[in-house]
DNA sequence: GCAAGGACGTA
DNA sequence: GTACGTCCTTGCA
């Protein structure tokens, strides 16, 4: 990048200075719809935009950032407790505008930077210093005299005063000459002068009685502060000499206070500040939320965009992110008009997305353009290319599918569509297990490759794009590399289209019309399938580089759709930040006690064998108890039991409910089978299988979470599934006792109480339910009491059980048929229950009708956080399919909103725990429950923080109108903690 | 060797 | 009646 250095120009804006200027210079202004004070935000936007326009005329910056003061204390408070002590607290109406100015900055696609413990001046000093080291030019938009110490004699670092002053030009540069006019010294001596004269505003003491003029004279005479203080006795004037000697220490402290720190550990490096074009999809949702009509109009003209294509940012608009209008409104025409405005590819982001799609799709895949990297020079060239472009699509090839076990075999990269490279590092020669192959020639040493790539993979300024990048994050962690920041095409697709097109092969086929090489084509299938390290490098490279190339293409196609289809907030708040959280949970794993499981296996297998013998006895023959087919034939054909039903494929139904029924009717074999099935299920799926998942490296079990496979936004867990560990039966719970805390630790289980019913009460706005939750009542008993006119006191458990079934039925999109089945009552009776329920809670029926209408009209329903859940066959010609969609569309906003809430809790959990200085590891998520591992004895500190984060997770995006309750317990094992 | 269907574990 | 993943058998290649 040395070639371009002459033209690099960094513009740093003193954000806090701008805020206060806007505040003092402008009349107050309140947002029309809710009175939120926004005058300062508006002024800030105007000033920021004007600055970029003015600068672009003759000195366009190539890099830019707005730097803010962080409200917390800084290192200067430790040096001098009185520092800035005279500063009054910020005016009340200014406080809510602080975060909004950050949002404003980001809306203009400019990085907004602030750091706890540092003043904006220190951060600016650091960036200026870094930029100077690279030979860049630096402009600091600020009139703060404290920054004058940064001015360079050669003018490479200058300040820019933009405060309008009558009779003066709008932009006034502050270079060495201006500094000399102000302080009477060259910029490098400014801090010495300030150390002597102090600063009344910041309460920097200085030496009492010495002003700027005297200070400058002294410093110019003695060269610098230290020399002056050492030789103070030589000063002729009595008063001046005495003051200096008496206050030497105060002067030294003052110097420390005014000296700006130039090595702040900034999280974003200079490359991350590269100037971005203003994106209408980012800008207009903000401006509309603020209701800045004039700026909106002006910028729409300049950007040639139509603001009507964008909706106000739901997190910022008046009333906060309330339920989307579609949930509240039954007006179909409104919903349809909105949909049309979003998707008509005639203008704005939708047009851009459509054009990008067409452009990318037309570029053919050329396998010959891919490169195998096996020299340090070529690797270095790729690294340089990544720095230049600022982003890279990346994929790892490994020996297996388990990110906690698979070893790295190669890395593929692509920075530009149509290009791609493969860096093989772990391909082995054929050989038996004992002879052990050895590495194939022509590969760079893995350590060299990782050392070369680590800086870009960890660079905050380089975006790493992947398909299911959580996998690659975990692989790289095991090699000591922290992959961040990320974008994930799988998650972008999920935010847009749900789990419909999961998988890169499907995405490539659907969006690019390109069939990728499949792993089976490359490595074979089944038992003879090769692992990646056994593949020929040339063949592997085509497959691998194609993956990186295609991922980059998909990113170009899918990313613009986020803005075009209003899914940016969903992706940025609920998808992208969750991936690294899940990666860490997977990497941690959980300890499982092998011995407990082994003992249970033995017990279950003995008892199952007894049931097996009993079953043969009762059946009068032996048969495969695991075969529903054979069992059906014995029960209904051979034994001639009446009343059997058939499944849709014509086989006898032998499900647990059928067998339970038969058992009650006096068929002892049915009971035996039920018992046998339960035990063999527990043994086969849990006590036998779980130990095989124990990772030999960590000794723990690491599940894998799928973030993008559930229609409603829930997670799913696999290999092994730790979201269906038994809990309902006594035998089942014994399995939970095998999930234990590591030595010296305890597990905490924290679960949302009745989260879905609470969400339902909120969405459907059911006052009676809300009141019950507000008063902390037993919700099922209360429902029963309302429906059956029975007092809660002394209520028969059967009555409560029925009400509970109805409550769940409501959540599942109730039908008389289903409820009757569940409760074992007649269809008519179940229908009466439902009717009564609707009479007692009339809002429920309205809610259900709204969802049904909406799904038919729009093809989707939404959660309270704006996640769309699509049902492509909502208008199917098949009546049973249609009713199925109706029920699912009733359930999806409830299940999905609850899922979004716990996602928000998970995303916030780690930083909040860290802030509270709690050492707690989040290990598992089971839909409404989070499992943590904490040092023994710290559970009482951890639990309140965990509860607080979970209970407030919806805020501030959504203000729920029901209280959310979380119950948390600690114990050595999961069974006791739950 | 693989896919589909049935059964069953969870929220 | 919603949403999942896993184990096992069966039937076909």
From TrEMBL:
Could you tell me which PROSITE patterns the record lists for this protein?
Answer: DNA_POLYMERASE_A
Q: Which residues form the 5'-3' exonuclease domain?
A: 8-276
- Its domain of life reads Bacteria
InterPro entries the record matches:
3'-5'_exonuclease_dom, 5-3_exonucl_a-hlix_arch_N, 5-3_exonuclease, 5-3_exonuclease_C_sf, DNA-dir_DNA_pol_A_CS, DNA-dir_DNA_pol_A_palm_dom, DNA/RNA_pol_sf, DNA_polI_H3TH
Q: Name one GO molecular function term.
A: 5'-3' exonuclease activity
Instruction: List where this protein forms a coiled coil.
Output: 222-256
Q: Which reaction does it catalyse?
A: DNA(n) + a 2'-deoxyribonucleoside 5'-triphosphate = DNA(n+1) + diphosphate
**Enzyme Commission number:** 2.7.7.7
Give the keywords, sorted. Coiled coil, DNA damage, DNA repair, DNA replication, DNA-binding, DNA-directed DNA polymerase, Exonuclease, Hydrolase, Nuclease, Nucleotidyltransferase, Transferase
Give GO BP annotations, semicolon-separated: DNA-templated DNA replication; double-strand break repair
Q: Key word Protein biosynthesis present in the record? A: no
Q: What does this protein do?
A: In addition to polymerase activity, this DNA polymerase exhibits 3'-5' and 5'-3' exonuclease activity.
Q: How does it assemble?
A: Single-chain monomer with multiple functions.
Regarding protein family, the annotation reads: Belongs to the DNA polymerase type-A family.
Q: What is this protein called?
A: DNA polymerase I
Tell me which species this is from: Devosia soli
